[in-house]
């Protein structure tokens, strides 16, 4: 393995940081013992900039490239965002309908298979042979449990670490 650049981030399949590396879990480091790394990172990921600075926190997060791609919003180095769960409200759902077709007359069948909902004056659940006539808008109510759903993309957990020592990266 070649000597890393100071501040380089790599993923590892084991659960510890190798010598000269630290896990990317947002911990604060003293500037006095890590001057080269601080000169590269500054307070991009946190810290007070006087006595300490923070490492990136990739615990439970996915890395994203800085900048702006086609049709994407700009992202700055160190920016965080996203949620693990999301509750979709009425204002977030696209306009759509749930049309339910019905028989225009009285029902004459006791089973729904291959038939349409129909009017029934006698209190039984009946269905008609012909359709489709549009049901009243109130016939189909609101559905859903008003609970958040998971918002996570498929993932594989790895150990992200940042090089504390190595070659100071030259600027181009």
Automatic annotation (TrEMBL):
Domain Phage tail collar: 7-62
Pfam families: Collar
Disordered: region residues: 95-132
Superkingdom of source: Bacteria
Gene3D superfamilies: Phage tail collar domain
Bias (Low complexity): 95-112
This protein's name: Phage tail protein
């Amino acid at each position: 393995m070649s000597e890393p650049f100071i501040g380089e981030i790599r993923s590892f399949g084991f659960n510890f940081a190798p010598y000269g590396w630290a896990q990317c879990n947002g911990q604060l480091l003293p500037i006095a013992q890590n001057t080269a790394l601080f000169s590269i990172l500054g307070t991009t990921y946190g810290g007070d900039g006087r006595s300490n600075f923070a490492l990136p926190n990739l615990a439970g997060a996915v890395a994203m490239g800085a900048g702006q791609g086609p049709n994407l919003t700009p992202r700055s180095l160190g920016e965080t965002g996203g949620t693990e769960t999301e509750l979709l409200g009425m204002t977030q759902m696209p306009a759509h309908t749930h049309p339910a077709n019905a028989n225009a007359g009285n029902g004459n069948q006791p089973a729904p298979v291959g038939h349409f909902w129909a009017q029934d004056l006698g209190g039984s659940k009946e269905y008609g042979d012909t359709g489709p006539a549009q049901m009243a808008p109130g016939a189909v109510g609101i559905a859903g449990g008003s609970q958040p759903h998971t918002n996570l993309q498929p993932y594989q957990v790895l150990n992200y670490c940042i090089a504390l020592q190595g070659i100071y990266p030259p600027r181009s």
